[in-house]
Amino acid sequence: MNIKPDAANVARSQLLGVFEKLDERLNKRQFLAGEQFSRADLCAAGLMFHGWSPNWSAPPHFDEFMREVHDRPFFRWARDIYRDYRGNIVK
User: Fold this and answer.
1) pLDDT digit string (tens) for 17-34?
2) How far apart are CA 46 and CA 49, in angstroms?
3) Cα–Cα distance for residue pair 28/30, rounded to 1 Å
4) 51-86 b/e with 16+ CB inside 10 Å = b?
5) pTM exceeding the 0.90 threshold for the entire prediction
6) I need a surface site. Which of 7, 40, 63, 91 has the fewest CB within 10 A?
7) In the predicted model, is pLDDT for residue 50 greater than 70?
8) Distance CA 57, CA 18 (A)
9) Calpha distance 88→91 (Å, rounded)
């Protein structure tokens, strides 16, 4: 994919900006798009935790990033949604 460090840093900053918005949104709600669990919740949680399987190898710096965001409200919410609505997570 030929990803350069500068582009990766920009993408990382953008992703953290999205986390800010999601943290804020989930401060007032249990679900992303309404009063009950929906595809939006499954999609968001699945994007965060799809790799947590025995056959998946994390890309470089992924574990570091996951440790960095581990205590954010969106991360905790996504982990709980994935656990409660999709199945058990490995980590």
Assistant:
1) 999 999 999 998 999 999
2) 5
3) 7
4) eeeeeeeeeeeeeeebeebeebebbebbbebbeeee
5) no
6) 91
7) no
8) 24
9) 9
